[in-house]
Amino acid sequence: MVDYSGIFIRNPVFPYVPYTPPDFVHWNVMLSSGYYDAVRADMHDYLLRQKESGHVNQKMLSLFLQDFLQLFYQILNHHHIGAHGVFEKEYDIHALNNSCHSIEEMHKLLDFSVDYLKSLQISAEPGVSQIDQVVNFIQKNIHQNVTRTEIAHQVIHEPGIPLPAFQKGKRNFTF
What we know:
The chain is an all-alpha fold. 58% of the residues lie in helices and 0% in strands. It is built from 8 helices and no strands. It has helices at 24-32, 36-52, 58-78, 83-90, 93-98, 103-123, 130-140, 148-156. Helix 2 (36-52) packs antiparallel against helix 6 (103-123) and helix 7 crosses helix 8. Mean pLDDT is 76; it is low at 6-12.
């Protein structure tokens, strides 16, 4: 079990703000099970609650960032992906460094990370047909209002491409 404790920054420059980390272990399980959008919403809600309670400052966001990156790196490691490659090729390193400066910047990092993990899950299913990937995606996200555009983006990574199997009159699906 990993300890999400934010042990890296202990800088007296920041005023004391209580940091109560969210349940990163639960988020890890949920992300590993494909509940990306539910975790994204929970992450955003957590930060909003912290802001409303007056617990947000640069130190709190730095501690959250460290704990979140530990979670993100664990999942990347599970997929045999080095974290450096993600931030060298996929996400601006300066934006990563600035993510602890504001909640808005942190939201951008969280959204990128969840989308990146989603893409890993979908590409990790090479032997599964697109239609089965669509059905799997819908089943995992049944509690949300998912559009055809979102499904197309997740399965074939091109939101403008229609999904012929789901056009009216083609097939009947029950979820």
